[in-house]
Amino acid sequence: MRLADPQHKLPVENILPLINIVFLMLIFFLVAATLKPFSELNIAPPVRDGSGQQETIRDTVLVDGQGRISYEGALVTPAELTERLRIRLQMGQMPRLKVLADRKLGAADLVDVLAAATAAGAKHVSLITIKGSG
Fold first, then answer.
1. Structural domain tally of the chain?
2. In the list 9, 61, 116, 123, which could disulfide-bond 81, CB 3.0-4.6 Å?
3. Is residue 29 part of a domain?
4. 50 pLDDT band (50/70/90 cuts)?
């Protein structure tokens, strides 16, 4: 008489402790992370209609609603902006310049920033906007 082989059950792995550890690590890193603001200026870009390519924020001139200009993390005057841009362009490090201006910025202040970029020799200047919902 032949008896059936006993079936060996694989032990069930308890993964609950692993899940707990992963969530604890996630919470730890979320709490421990230091979030740095994008800029020291509070900027709300203008809204645009239509679609276009999204570009990264690099080599960007920031201008807030009061006309304060920030470039490379420092507040600068239009003359200082011209000099810094001229140096970057001479080194060949900036093929395109982007301007992120607050929607409340006056046109005259925006023209001053664009004039500084033109005086430095910038040939490709883009104004960054936010796509509208319409």
1. 1
2. 116
3. no
4. low
